[in-house]
Records
---
Amino acid sequence: MKIGVFGTGMVGNTIATKLVQVGHDVRMGSRSAGNEKSVAWVKSTGARASGGTFADAAAFGELLFNCTAGGVSLGALQAAGAGNLGGKVLIDVSNPLARTAEGMTLSVCNTDSVAEQLQRAFPDLKVVKALNTLTAPLMVNPSLLAGEHDVFVSGNDEGAKARVSQLLKESFGWKNVVDLGDLSAARGQEMYVIFWVRMFGALKSPMFNIHVVR
Amino acid sequence: MKIGVFGTGMVGNTIATKLVQVGHDVRMGSRSAGNEKSVAWVKSTGARASGGTFADAAAFGELLFNCTAGGVSLGALQAAGAGNLGGKVLIDVSNPLARTAEGMTLSVCNTDSVAEQLQRAFPDLKVVKALNTLTAPLMVNPSLLAGEHDVFVSGNDEGAKARVSQLLKESFGWKNVVDLGDLSAARGQEMYVIFWVRMFGALKSPMFNIHVVR
């Protein structure tokens, strides 16, 4: 499948690399076409990898990943353009983390979420929140942890969620995909990250995740 | 041990009852001494149970539980009075949940938490945030779930956290008590609850918890 990945940071790089490894064609999008990290990624990743602007990546992908920081995601999608985004499925991996005087905070939360902001701005887009609750290496390789553990999805379009769940299973190896309901559940997924940050501090490693025990 | 429990709702009732069952003397505190639910609880629970105002419960307990709703917790502690609270350990189980037009929200979050509000108002009190991340029956009986799962504590006083962890293990049967650090981690514990609410909706049961997998 042709996939567009917005963002050249650790999350975008990790997801884009894994997608290429399992046979997808991936275009990494960034603010400028000549982005250094994007160029380096294309060079090291081979023929299935390409780079370009957010608009280039959006036009290229049948499916899109938003791996930009939550605070700049809306701007990235505006740069991608409604015409290129169309009615595609966008997997929103972003977190609106902001380091402030009060510690690590979210720039949006409680009554709204980044995922909902994106959905409101691009009503035709099928936004699915997923993967934002764990560190990048685990997103694409859950078997790095020995025990059973879970990934969470939310979104307003059932077909889009089913497609994302399938991709999480087939391309990334997830076994437990928990559907939290409509996209307002993204508030919970994003607010969880403040808990995650404290767990990270306590465990002194980001290589952990949670399993829901019933 | 003599323990004061603020709150007559499901959480206060469940915790107070369990504490009596394992041999503690418990005074349930509420806004008025003749509170119906408190009177009924005392009648049905036996000689180790007593009721009174928040001030009565605070004066009685060597250790205190705050099981009031997060939005009214500060008022409950003000009614208890700084003199009665003194330098005691207070286990804050509260959540500032508020049902609004935007859905289930927190009345304080992100840059602050109920636990920190209480700690700021009563600097001598040793506030430990714990147990707010799961449904009442599981708080006092973790073995109701078959798999391994975890409870989280945070607080500024290491001795108080050690004492609370011991009580969670000895009186409630917890095996995995995860220390998240100082009391600002209560923001994460409280924000997690919005994620919990969505999990509750997805699973259609509150009888679940999480296990941190490493």
---
Amino acid sequence: MPLINRLAIVGVGLIGGSLARILREKNEVGEVVGIGRGKDNLERAVELGVIDRYCHDPREGVAGADMVFLATPVCTIADLVGEIAPALAPGCVVTDGGSVKGEIVSACEPLMPAGRHFIGGHPIAGTEKSGVEASFAELYQGRRCIITPTERSDRGALETVVRMWELTGSEVVLMDVAKHDRVVAAISHLPHMVAYSLVNAVGEYDGCDENILKYSAGGFRDFTRIASSDPVMWRDIALMNRGSVLEMMDFFAGYYAELRELVAQGDGEALERFFARSKQYRDGLVAGTRS
Amino acid sequence: MPLINRLAIVGVGLIGGSLARILREKNEVGEVVGIGRGKDNLERAVELGVIDRYCHDPREGVAGADMVFLATPVCTIADLVGEIAPALAPGCVVTDGGSVKGEIVSACEPLMPAGRHFIGGHPIAGTEKSGVEASFAELYQGRRCIITPTERSDRGALETVVRMWELTGSEVVLMDVAKHDRVVAAISHLPHMVAYSLVNAVGEYDGCDENILKYSAGGFRDFTRIASSDPVMWRDIALMNRGSVLEMMDFFAGYYAELRELVAQGDGEALERFFARSKQYRDGLVAGTRS
């Protein structure tokens, strides 16, 4: 018997499509219903065998589902949950893949009717591609998936969501909502803020008589790749995880100011220590890489 | 007739070895003498055919050379030039590959005896490997090489250095010393300062009850790769290019502070514009990539 009888996925792209693929491959889902606006993408998803059928109306799409997965932009999730809530079947579990959890979980939990459950989730996986064509069953293999239950979470619903992500090959980690938002602010949101600032600074530096970006080599391009990320998505993340992003931005600014002072003072010993500490953390990271 | 009769290379590693390889391949050098401390590396360089012979004493090694290439750490170059200056043959051209030019050029030019010439250079190339084993003839192909002549530079010496780098397949760019130091501060030194600060901040963040680096995924690792660079080398670069590094660090700090305020104010429109501007610069960079 499959874990899920009917899975409704809102947003059948890389994230939603890959989840459907692996669950189907393992025969752990009876039927998959895709929900979205774009007809072409949904028809392609049917052709590819990622979903069985689709519809554009979220309420209609979630009817009779025992699991609903929301893979839409972070700023849309709470509204979407409000819209589908009245149409959810008894016992239905709703979960999401948004990279911010505090605002989403606190908004969505109270929207759930009795006997329906919201559990926040965040699979830490992705590629630079998007759309259902880019989805593949192995996307989550060996990656971490953070699940953020609260005191209000239904134990059975939580277990089902954990089991679903374990089936994808993910390493599931349960984490407090606030801690999740700090962790991702540190390892993902902060680096994006830094990269965006860096590229703007170098791109607009006016101390030479020409744009100096043209002298950049491979190192600069690698370092700044994340500054090519979608501005709208990052606007939403910065707004929705504002508190943690600000906390981490200020925390970074302290280290940066310290380094600036060491450079200004020409303190070679302290500079070497500063760089060596960083190298140690970074090398430890690589040593700890899981394939 | 080859461009160079006898080339003396101090520091036969990736940078020095690759220069020797391409000049030999093109029959543009008569004899290559390697100079360094490590016997094993130099013997390996002979075995690999990168150099013809070697010696440990720089003065002995440069005798009779018409071109000397210094591929040692930036902080050693001025002392080295002081040491070899009395042993240089008439007409000899000395050049280097250091990534900082102001301090090096201003220190080395006055050290040259009459009829011997120093020309500063900086081939923008490299890999994560080092040592003569890692050297290869194509390292400089399609890369930029910045040459920084001054008013005192001998025109013939400059032409020879330019020609040598053109033979490697590099695109040679002549640049004012101060401009060079600003350009590399922006596209290379600043990103390193930012990456080192970021990894230290995230590595030492104490707002969760555990080290959060372990949650980092591929994106963080890619972004912070340069924080694994050699602390001693970067200490020297920060010290030697202090003025430009500080200028660029402060310039970046202005953009970062601006972004921090946009996040604090929750100004979605301005955030999207900030990110979109950055994405535009970054995407333009990739579109302009030379293969």
